[in-house]
Amino acid sequence: MHDGRTAFLACMWAMCTPGTPIELACLPRVEGHPELDGAAGVLLALLDRGLTLGVSGGEVAHQIAAAVMAETGARPGNVADADWALVHGAAADAIACARRGSRLSPERGATLVLAAAAEPHPVSIAGPGVDGQAEVWLPLDEVAVRAFAAANSAPPCGVDLLIVTGNCVIGLPRSVTLGVV
């Protein structure tokens, strides 16, 4: 049974402790892919009317997004213009084209929810919420790490990333820097 409050709190903890996996305790059980189920739980907790959701992925990701929008009242959009994006599969292109906000409205930068089933790779991370520079293991390939760095190269503009690996969420706010190890 899904509990939006616990998913919301998990996402907030994940954004406050970048690179640290935070357990998603109650998932909605809407799909056989654990990473998409976890992503649906995150989106159900964080979306509401007035927000737009873009999708980068196959048919199953589009079906999950449609179910989330029907439940939350969020509207469909394309990844380049959406407030939020569900990403299933390769993430670099979605990160590269996502909305980044502006100097006067940095809050208009998108948040991407990456449903990740890839093997984790070592990545260096630094910034607020990280003790100095650390090495973390993330299911992001080198191209996605570089896309995240490029998308966030003009602070305070950029994108935020919530990586969902089934029953865990990992937050990467735009304020952190990533590097390939």
Automatic annotation (TrEMBL):
GO biological process: organic phosphonate metabolic process
Alphabetical list of Pfam families matching this protein: PhnH (PF05845)
Superkingdom in the source lineage: Bacteria
Protein name as it appears in the record: Carbon-phosphorus lyase subunit PhnH
Taxonomic classification: Bacteria, Bacillati, Actinomycetota, Actinomycetes, Mycobacteriales
